[in-house]
Amino acid sequence: MSEATARALAGPSDDATRAARLRAMRLAATGLLAAMAVVYVLASLYVGKAPWLGWVRAFAEAAMVGACADWFAVTALFRRPFGLPIPHTGIIPRNKDRIGEALGDFIANNFLTAEILEGKLRQLEVARWGAGWLREPGHVAALADRLVRLVPELLALSTPQARRQFIAAITADAAAAVPAGPLAASALRAVWSEGRSQAILDRGLDLAAGYLARNQDLVRAELAGKTFRWLPRWLDNRIADKALQVLTEVTQDLRRPDHPWRERIGQAVADFIERLDTDPELRAKAEDVKRSVMSQPVLLERLSDIGAALEARLRPQTPEARQAMSDWLAAQLVRLGAWLDERGDAREIFNAWARQTIERIIAPRRHEIGRFIAGVVADWDAQSVVEKLELQVGADLQYIRINGTLVGGLVGLAIYGLSRALGL
Description:
Layout: H1 3-10, H2 15-46, H3 53-78, H4 91-94, H5 96-110, H6 114-124, H7 126-134, H8 137-155, H9 160-177, H10 180-192, H11 196-214, H12 216-224, H13 233-253, H14 260-278, H15 280-294, H16 297-313, H17 319-342, H18 344-361, H19 366-379, H20 382-422
Helix pairs in contact: 2-3, 2-20, 3-20, 5-19, 6-18, 7-17, 8-17, 9-16, 10-14, 11-13, 12-13, 14-15
């Protein structure tokens, strides 16, 4: 079993502490058994002189039986008692693979179904939880430092070609998991709402006016080429000049806040956003556009170039550069947390992304995840697994031995009393 697996099984507590607690509990349980044996011997020696010691002997005798039975039961979970090939002992090492399969099936069918994932994600509200977590400076500093140190190590585990293929696969899965229409509608609605529509429209008019001013000859030539062929050249130019003048005046006139076209443009954009979210035909066209964009080789090339540039930034060569990158990353994460905390619309978009991505990527593959868990358990060394599991729960299992000793003694006492009462 690998060291990573051993650490995972060991958990956050120190193995040495757990081993010491296990030894102490074993000693207590065994010491109680030994004490009952001593009590039984002494009571047997002096019962002739003190008949009441018969009660004590009955208690001690039954307590030893209970202690031995429960010692056998606890030991049989992890190994064969005294190494003897007794049937139905050494349960965990003999059934390790079957336990792994059962664990994988249990997780797949009780934790990773679409219904459970959706319900838990709605309760959790990933974006709000993430925003609160990121606003804690201690969390952000530790996360940033860990990421800066971890990323170069992860990059060293794969080749550039493998990373490009991974990015392409993840991008394709994420794009396929998120419907283009509702996503675009949510993004446009967030941009267009809260009074920003007028500012966006003014910016669009600025761009249009600037384009017309810089490209008058090009626009004039395009307009002149669209008239009838039999018109004289000078008339073509007059028509083009007039059209260019009208376009310029319209862009200037539309700057008036009370212009009726502004309201119509805003309503048209709002209607388009609503259709993106609800119209099946427009949503289908959005999916076609998404698939067309994702199939373009130039997109993957650009992603690859961006990834290469990002990798170069993620490999700081000096401690100073590493610290500077960690500080920068921490600052960006804090800003992200503050932005998510302030923007309810952004949180809803992130929550929708999280739900759709998990439901469409994880839920359909839950049985593969279950088989993966079963395979990991099958690869573990049985003896190491037994040792680690015993460290986790062995100390608590010793209470079974202690309780068995005491309960056995009380049962023996009751049987002895009933026998005396019946004259047996």
